[in-house]
Design goal:
Layout (H helix, E strand, L loop, with lengths): L6 H17 L1 H7 L4 H27 L4 H17 L2 E2 L6 E2 L25
Antiparallel strand pairs: 1-2
């Protein structure tokens, strides 16, 4: 027998997952093997996962995302935001674009990005 779960229970699950991601922030920062610059490059995407999980849970709980189509729309927005962002190798800050075109220069320090996704 298949049980249908309400969107409020899904919102609670997303809040729990977001909380676990937030608790794991220090683990990623201090215990992931590799160079400190590589760990700093992971953090913007890690923070984006927390924001996406918590934001989706909030919108589901408030009723702004009606049903599964609304949830899929929110996931799609998160994927587009992550796909068009860049991480600066000089200052280590994730640069999110104001349109769907990935930025060519870092908004924080002005460093020009290369042809790849991350400028490392």
């Amino acid at each position: 027998m298949v049980h249908a779960h309400s969107l409020h229970s899904l919102a609670l699950l997303l809040l729990i997952l977001g909380g676990l991601f937030a608790l794991g922030f220090g683990f990623v920062l201090f215990h992931v093997p590799g160079e400190p610059a590589d760990r700093r490059a992971i953090l913007p995407y890690y923070c984006a996962a927390i924001v996406i999980l918590m934001g989706t849970a909030l919108l589901l709980d408030l009723g702004l995302a009606k049903g599964w189509p609304g949830l899929l729309f929110l996931v799609g927005l998160g994927v587009v935001a992550l796909a068009t962002s860049r991480v600066c190798s000089r200052c280590g800050i994730a640069v999110l674009p104001r349109s769907l075109v990935p930025p060519e220069h870092c908004a924080h320090c002005g460093h020009a990005f290369g042809g790849g996704r991350d400028d490392r």
